[in-house]
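Backbone geometry:
***
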Amino acid sequence: MAGQADNRAPYAKIAAHYTELITSGQLEPGTLLPSIKNLSEEWAVSTATAEKALRKLRNEGLVRGIHGIGTEVLDQPAPMSSGSQRQDRGRRTGSSWGAGERSDSHQAAVVAAPADVAQALDIQPGSEVIRRSRVYRDRHGIVAHSTSWIPARYGKLIPQLAESARLKGGTSLQLIAQATGNPISHRVDTATARLLTPEYAHLLELDPERQPAEPVVVMTAKFVDSEGNVVEYGVDLGGPGRTWRTESEVTP
């Protein structure tokens, strides 16, 4: 975000730069990255730091080292991201999209809450809720089908929540926090592998005659505000071949 200091280690900055170029498609599969020597000169870092940056990219499966040739960009679908990761991304960058992602098929409606949704939102089954859905894609296809379930009372404060269009002015969580004055204080995440059902296949736009046999990743995120109100329950259905991935620093 503009105005914020980047406190990452130099190797992490280099790796993040090339991660963005690779996942956005600006560096195509088969492209060779600069050599360790060239990276160290371009970024004014030691060769050890440049090597560490390339190692990070290799560990993330974005590139591979070819002996005597160099470091080659691999063609691999980006991992799916969870609703919580999109919340973090939106807070940092103002956009919930990952590198190279876009969203479409935005749909919204006020419906009766299914039992599992009612339990997650701590409301009575059949109560009115806003169901918002969209599809995240990258150059490989569908990253995830995402559905947000929001108590209908927030629609009275923010009418656009119930409109079938991309939200303006922020994410649903940001808009709700602004309207109520209660920031999101914590969240609960789950991840499971489930067999592909006809409903899942339809949401993921799969050919009924050519459906994959492997399970798909289903992730949920429940968001709670500072007053203890559950303001949103998100369900993300991962596209075939997508995996969930997260990374964090480990302090010795």
Observations:
- The radius of gyration is 21 Å.
- The chain is about 30% helix and 30% strand.
